[in-house]
Amino acid sequence: MHNQMVKKRVPEWLNSSLWSSPPSAPPADDDRAQRYTSKPSTPTTTTTSASVVEPPLPVPPPSSAREQPPPEPQPVDSVSDHDDRGAAVPSPEDFSRQSQLLAELSKKIINVRELRKIAVQGIPDGAGIRSTVWKLLLGYLPPDRALWPSEVAKKRSQYKHFKDELLMNPSEITRKLEDNGTSCDSEESKSKGLLSRSHIAHGEHPLSLGKSSIWNQFFQDTEIIEQIDRDVKRTHPDMHFFSGDSQFAKSNQDALKNILVVFAKLNPGIRYVQGMNELLAPLYYVFKNDPDEEYAAAAEADTFFCFVELLSGFRDHFCQQLDNSVVGIRSTITRLSQLLKEHDEELWRHLEITTKVNPQFYAFRWITLLLTQEFNFADSLHIWDTLLSDSEGPQETLLRVCCAMLILVRRRLLAGDFTSNLKLLQHYPPTNISHLLYVANKLRVQSSG
Length: 449
Description:
Layout: H1 2-8, H2 17-20, H3 92-105, H4 112-119, H5 129-137, H6 148-166, H7 170-180, H8 184-191, H9 214-233, H10 247-266, H11 276-288, H12 293-297, H13 299-312, H14 329-343, H15 345-354, H16 360-368, H17 377-389, H18 394-408, H19 410-415, H20 418-426, H21 433-448
């Protein structure tokens, strides 16, 4: 009797032959895939080229993100079954979705609700569509297109101000203080190559031990900046865009570093937490590859504000004091466990009671890094299209996708012990992303039904 009840928990649609058949190639929605000829007519568009095959900025060759990464930093990503996707012909569904998105983006007032409905199935990033749609979904661009030029100009100017104020070292700050308070006498001294010390407060001297000293703050910040620098250099080592000795890769690393340092200084309650670089990378990559030169050039500033917006929905996962609270990461992992129990009690029981695979062992990384480490880069972008498009917010969708990941490998998990199951979930196998998102959406329908 009990077994029958448990079996009822397994959704009927999971027994469809769809799941046992080999996955078909996912739609070619990769940023590095063919650029489409049409462009949304936005007020700020500066490029007029009708058929852009590659972004005007120097970007890595299309195959870069699909090279085999080193096994250490991203063991899961070393398995890629989409190596030829850059050359794939977009499917009819892609073209249809692209034209729907372009039609929505060309309206004077964009209906964000409609945009979400179309984008949730994945965004073919021809003509920089993904870049524009993500900015709208994250609230960086307002729905009224007439406001775009003034809005982005204001934000970009604000970011420049943040950088000017927060990325200065103490020597520059003291020099600035001195410049602001100098008299004619000190001007005369400077002309002789002497720097006046009279206007530098004792607390701002490098040898001052005062807690409020800018030098004391600088030495504290240095540790965080060094950590950011190390992590940024480890970001997507398999991609020429982020890694390597080219000037282009270095300038992209510098942009990531600037954003993270500015964020850490503006948010002393969170500062910098390892892994933030992985959440920043997809945003910056998409915005930097916008075929609109003006937008690509301002990718760093645009990414900063979108990153802040993205993190605001997940900030409690990065705040250690909240780990055990109802909003912390442990609570979110518990909700994933409950979701699995609700949809597939047999699998939940086997994982957590029989084989004692604590969801903390695998789900912590899944959730905090928004699945960026579990799939190849192009597939991660597709998943993010869905996460950012959901009207309920990314966290609910993320939990459903994680639950769907467990359900899709349920046969292997039910046959496995602690060791094999943990290995499988920490090195998730290649999967068809469209299938995965379909299953995740089915879980929503079932929960609400």
